[in-house]
Design goal:
Strand content: 25-35%
EC number: 2.5.1.114
Enzyme class: transferase
Number of helices: 14
CATH topology of the largest domain: Rossmann fold
Number of strands: 42
Structural class: alpha+beta
Protein name: tRNA(Phe) (4-demethylwyosine(37)-C(7)) aminocarboxypropyltransferase
Catalytic activity: 4-demethylwyosine(37) in tRNA(Phe) + S-adenosyl-L-methionine = 4-demethyl-7-[(3S)-3-amino-3-carboxypropyl]wyosine(37) in tRNA(Phe) + S-methyl-5'-thioadenosine + H(+)
Number of domains: 5
Helix content: 10-25%
CATH superfamily of the largest domain: Vaccinia Virus protein VP39
CATH architecture of the largest domain: 3-Layer(aba) Sandwich
Distance between the termini: 48 Å
Largest sheet: 7 strands, mixed
Strand order of the largest sheet: 38-37-36-39-40-42-41
Keywords: Methyltransferase, S-adenosyl-L-methionine, Transferase, tRNA processing
Amino acid sequence: MGRHARRNDLLLLDPYSGNLEMVSTVGCASPTPRLGHTASLVGNCMFVIGGRTGPDKILSDVWILDTTMNSWKLLQCSDNLFLPRHRHAAAIMGSDIYVFGGLDNDTIFSSFYVFDTNTLHWKEIPVSGDWPCARHSHAMVASDSQIFMFGGYNGGKALGDLYSFDVQKGQWTKERTTGRNPHARFSHSIFVHKNYLGVLGGCPVRQHCEELALLDLKLRLWKHVTLNSVGKDLFVRSTTNVVGDDLVIVGGGASCYAFGTKFSEPAKVNLLHIIHSHDEHMSVKNQSKHVINQDEGTIGNNIKNSCQPQLELGPNVFEDESLCFNDNLPCLNDQSQMIASHYILQLKKKYAKLGKDILKKFGWLDLGRKAHSEEGGVHICFPVHQEFFAVFCERNHHLRDASNGKNEVPFSKPLKQDEYLLNELSYSEALTILHEYGAIILEDKVVEERKTAKSPLKVMTEAVTSLIKHKGLPTRLLEELPTRWDRLGDIIILPISSFKDSMWDSIAGELWPIVAKSLKAHRLARQGPVAATGTRDSTLQILVGDSGWVNHRENGVFYSFDATKCMFSWGNLSEKIRMASLDCKEEVVVDLFAGIGYFVLPFLVRAQAKFVYACEWNPHAVEALRHNLQANSVADRCIILEGDNRITAPRGVADRVCLGLIPSSELSWITAVRALRREGGMLHVHGNTKDSEESEWIDRVAKSINDIARSEGYCWEISVEHVERVKWYAPHIRHVVVDVRCRQI
């Protein structure tokens, strides 16, 4: 069904036999084909929530499948506060389904809902604790009275944070863990087995395509193993389920954009071999007196390829012996156990630099507290997490036993500080080094908390949250807070998708100064849609401040303009730099869409063009262009031709013509050909095209220029010298520049 296929098939997998079969349902009702939904099994019923059927058709419906009758039913939910979304995450707690985040076109949600499957009632959970930022394509799972959430995408980057929600307290907590954290990712899956939380797969594939990350929920310690034989195409948007002691992996694609192109065969991994491999490995090592140093584990998994996949497990397991699976809190000695709220690691001053680097590398250093010296600077004390206390003490027990002849100390590098390559140190070696350098764990009796600077986003969120609570407005408005913004001169420009609800207008007088102060902005504005006029006027709205005129310096070029009347694109910076890098000293350039001087000024200031004809019909842009030519001291090498370029552009003068208009500059292609000298020259043709149709678009540009040249009586050889992919304009729509060379034959 092609890329991003939407289906409403119902499949049943037997995890023991490996049989996968289509299930026929009773009745005519069934969910519309969709993707990005969630499916949650509560008792004998599966609840399907949300998703999308098309680029603009986002759903909020809830369907229930009675698995005993194989019949679908669309639920009529009371108090339906749940807004349409897809790529959200759901977790089951008893008869309740908890849903966080998701995506609806440009809106990314941070709201948290619970759906009661008994009463069919939606309830929004109020903000409390370390509330996670808005995200989509994340993953959630429930364990005991907690819901864990990892990763996702916030619209700007992949996330690698881990949160837990205490259902009884109704509060979020950002988890602090030790060990190597999993890579930031989205479109992954997570699961819980016994005392471990697992994270598998996700985007970007290249970083962790075959890695399974496991978090010991008691020690909050990460470990990692590699699934060597499982195909990489299983790991993006796959589904994981724990059946007994097996992890069953179903579906997925090789990358986000390939999802739906093929259905990967199911796979099964025995989790007991992973979790208990440490004890088995240590037992074998003790018998053979042979030391194995290996930082990562490897799991072999054989999958048969057939129409009805058969699942087999080959338990070939090797684990890092330093990974701890002891459920009890380690003791400092045989008689006593240290119990404290804060710990420090004490090292001699000469070992402090290496010790600090090791603690930072493995996430053991508590950045919320300050290091301090003791005994007149003889010792340096580093604040460490409680989880490190447990791991370090366990390691000390092991090394003490080794010194008594029970084991060999698994360390092969010389203990000289200047000979270490930090990146090559394994988890086990790092702990051994700290031990050999005389590091000891102590209770932190100083506990000097470090004042961590809050991010502007956090400051804004807290301030706006306080305001809307004071005004009695719903917390769902917080979903419209921006997670990113642009800075133009001293103006902070909020995206068009922020603060859209009309309820914001009722508190605008108090809201905008708070937002401006939070973002440390002298002036605040919100982006508007490009005016549907031929001059493409800006509709930027000033929220704090009086004037829209800004000064902006970019790549050594000075721009000044009224942002409320003229457009300015940050995404074209790479193309402006490319034009500036050209050698145009002896060239005459015609810019058919000059604007405020986006490309005119780089041609003159940086590329040293001999002369530029600047065509522009927006009077506000012309005013700014005149000012900018003077400000950059290049007015003597440019003439502004105000009006429609099809009328005002010169003929037969240009060595180079710039057609910097999107989505299409096609109406001026004839004008561009006529502007070139009879000997020919270079055309920089801008346009938007679907990524799947890029080659066809490039061929059409070249053919059209060739046809126009012939019709104008030119005998030219037309060739495409370069294709510059400037930016993504929209999903699957790319801004492309084609350099077309016209040579006289």
